[in-house]
Amino acid sequence: MKDREYIQEDEIDLRELFKTIWEKKLFVILFTSIVTFSAIIFAYNKTPIYEVKSYMELGFIDNKIIEEPSILEQKLKVIFGIDNNMMNNNLKEGIITSISQTKNIKNFLEIKTEAISNEIAVAKNKEVLTYTRNLYNPKIEYSKSLINNEILNIEREINFYENEKMNMLNESILLNNTNLDKYTKEIRELYKSNTSDKTSSMIASVQIINYQNLIINLQNQINSIEIEKQQIIKNILPKMKASLDEIKFKLSEQNISNTRLVGDYIVNEYPTKPKKTLIIVVLFVTGFILSIFIVFFMQFVNNFRKEKNK
Q1: Is there a contact between 58 and 106 (Cβ–Cβ < 8 Å)?
Q2: Which residues contact 5 (CB under 8 A, 6 or more apart)?
Q3: Quick check: 79 pLDDT over 50?
């Protein structure tokens, strides 16, 4: 029986509550309308804020990141005052709202900026990229200068072998061939001048043998020089040129690169702030709940006064 009485009392209380709200419905509607209308005015008069996002790939040398992303992230946050509202709060010039590492990609940073227009937000976003590029540029240029010096040295060696060394060897072959012809003619002359005189014949024979030895030596020298030429052409120069290509590859963007933008700047056509619909809905609900609270409070005050006057 007691439970039924409690249920009846609860039903009576709920009816009283709805009755109170219904009696003050005009106040609830008016109050909620005023709050909602104020929210509409606030939302549509608030300066629209646009957000721009970009992804930045960190610079690398010999496929090694120049600086650890976590260190660079903290450095940029300090320089651009991410956590300093006094330094980073002018929407007319643009503000950097976030600099963070991209998940699962170690050498990428995500940059977010906000401003009163997309153009200003993009310009502010570019400041981070420009600063980072300028920060790494001396290291990049120094590495490139070392590589260029290596290239220059190898090119000088290749030029020496292809021109000076080959010319020297060709001149040696030409000189040896000239002497070879000379000694061959001398032998022929000695054979022609051969006499019956034994002494003269012996002297001529010795000279012929000497010339033959000289010819053999010259032929051996010519063969050695030809072998050396072939060694240069087929072995030394190809290896040097292959080494040159490898070193030149070090200058390519696949091996050495400054920080760069990945893709394009991600721009929203519509402002991201204020969220007008959300503001209006939240304040509408807030106004409605507040109006009901005021109605119940006024009812409580009236009931309190009546009991006091009895």
Answers
A1: no
A2: none
A3: yes
